[in-house]
Design brief:
Layout (H helix, E strand, L loop, with lengths): L7 E4 L5 E5 L2 H23 L7 H9 L3
Length: 65
C-alpha cells in the first residue's frame, strides 16, 4: 500500500474545512481503494445467491429471444 501525502485543505472564513486538494497519485490510490471496497461489498451482498453454471449463464446471456 502506498503512503499518502498530507492533503491541502480548503478552509472557509470560519476556519472550517470545506474541501481538499490531493495530488493525482493520492487521488488515484483512494479511487482504487474505493473501487475495491465497493467490489467487496457487492460480493458480500451476493454470497447467499445460488451459483449459476457457466453454460447456463452463457445461454441466458447470448440466446436470442
Amino acid at each position: 500500500m502506498t503512503a499518502l501525502k498530507k492533503p491541502t485543505y480548503i478552509i472557509d472564513q470560519n476556519g472550517k474545512k470545506k474541501g481538499v486538494i490531493l495530488d493525482m497519485k493520492a487521488y488515484q490510490t483512494l479511487m482504487e481503494q474505493l473501487e475495491d471496497l465497493n467490489d467487496l461489498k457487492y460480493v458480500k451482498e451476493h454470497l447467499s445467491e445460488e451459483a449459476i453454471p457457466y453454460k447456463t449463464a452463457r445461454k441466458r446471456l447470448f440466446s436470442k429471444k
